[in-house]
Automatic annotation (TrEMBL):
Stated name of the protein: DNA-directed RNA polymerase subunit omega
Top EC category: transferase
EC code(s) of this entry: 2.7.7.6
Organism the protein comes from: Gracilibacillus kekensis
Protein encoded by which gene: rpoZ
PANTHER family with a match to the protein in the record: DNA-DIRECTED RNA POLYMERASE SUBUNIT OMEGA
Keyword Transcription: yes
Length: 71
C-alpha cells in the first residue's frame, strides 16, 4: 500500500515533518467533525488523507510566525 500524497511531495509545501503531522492531524479532526473539506475530487477516503491532499493543494498553510498557545 502506497500512501498518497507522498511525504516528498508534502515536504515541498511544509518543510518540517513535525509541523506536517500536527497540521494534518488537527485538520483531519476538523474534517471529521464538520464533514467539510476543500478538495474538489479527493483521492483519499480517510480524513488524514483529505487533510494531506489539502496541504498538497495549498488549501492549508502554516504561517511561520504563528505560535500555538498552551491549551
Amino acid at each position: 500500500m502506497i500512501l498518497e500524497p507522498s511525504i516528498d511531495k508534502l515536504q515541498t509545501k511544509i518543510n518540517s515533518k513535525y509541523t506536517l503531522v500536527t497540521l494534518a492531524a488537527k485538520r483531519a479532526r476538523q474534517i471529521q467533525d464538520t464533514k467539510v473539506h476543500q478538495v474538489e475530487n479527493p483521492d483519499s477516503a480517510t480524513y488524514v488523507g483529505l487533510a494531506l491532499e489539502e496541504i498538497l493543494e495549498e488549501k492549508l498553510i502554516v504561517h511561520p510566525d504563528y505560535v500555538m498557545p498552551n491549551e
